[in-house]
Specification:
The chain is mainly alpha-helical and 152 residues long. It has one domain. It is 56% helix and 8% strand. It is built from 6 helices and 3 strands, in the order αβββααααα. It has helices at residues 3-17, 45-59, 67-81, 87-106, 119-124, 137-150; strands spanning 20-23, 28-31, 36-39. A 3-stranded mixed sheet has the order 1-3-2. Helix 2 (45-59) crosses helix 3 (67-81). The longest helix is centred in the middle third of the chain and has 20 residues, at 87-106. It is elongated, with a radius of gyration of 18 Å.
Length: 152
Amino acid sequence: MTSEEMAQHVAAICRDEGIRVLPHSRGGRASKSHKVIAIRPVKSAITYAVALHELGHVLGPWQSQPRLYAEAGAWKWAKEVALIWTPAMADKMSRSLHSYVLWAERRAPRIKLPEDDHEFWMLRGDAPEPRTRKVPAKQRRRMRVLRMIFGR
């Protein structure tokens, strides 16, 4: 499949669904409420996957769920709608979902990871992270100081 065919597929979905496309210099962005995506031009399988992923934020499942669920829903939609799904695209999806797990772990315990049996983990391509998260030493010290100050 050529990059031109991939670009035409993305353009056709946008046209059919009334989604406006804006240029973006890196990665992509989406607004479901405004039916707008901002993407780089589709010139490879990776930019095709990212474009479909951003469309998934507008058209896909789980978009009203917490962030990790919404990301997984957008990738799920992209994978189901793609005319081709290459190993490079699967790797991009897996790395992107992994980056959100790392993001969530840095904000632990505020951010809820998907349940062990959620499709998020299958899309990511591995087993779920262990449910016990270690709080970094620096954060533990900060929490201890705050407890001393505020008495919590």
